[in-house]
Give the backbone structure.
Amino acid sequence: MLGGLFKSKRGLAAEDCVWVDDAARWTGMRKLLKETLRDRSVLLLVRSGAGLDQAIDAFAELRPLAITDGYALDDAYAQLRDPGKLLVALTDVAERRTPAGLTLAPAVHILSRSERRSADARLMAALQRWHAGPLVFHSSLDDALLRPHVDSLEPLLERLGMDRSEPIASQLIGQALQRATRD
């Protein structure tokens, strides 16, 4: 289901899950998070306050816990020990705080790639201190990073008969996203 697997310079695996548009991304992520929450907790990282509000609204039925500052993050990380918990936090807050004592690491999902490769690398390095599993970046063709490539991708997706509710999963997409970001 998820594709674009590659290793960062620091060795932490990341997967890219690209959705046709924002609506498909929210719907697809909701389905994916519901499945994951059955046996694990999930840490969803967003890059802005607006993204945090959107995620809280989109996943309201999953009863997410929103974290906007590092002081609350310490208490929230404790909840990640229990399967079925969804924690939504800002990426810059998560970069500064590392959870301790997690016996089952949560699944980590990140809403969109940054336009700056160094920002993604910094986040991945911070997460690597405590998270060994892959990170999943969820992007949409509506994102600023991918918008310039929509005209060339849409005809291809139509010819392939891609279902709007399925992510675009290809190693080529992951490589293209890496090339599209700036240092």
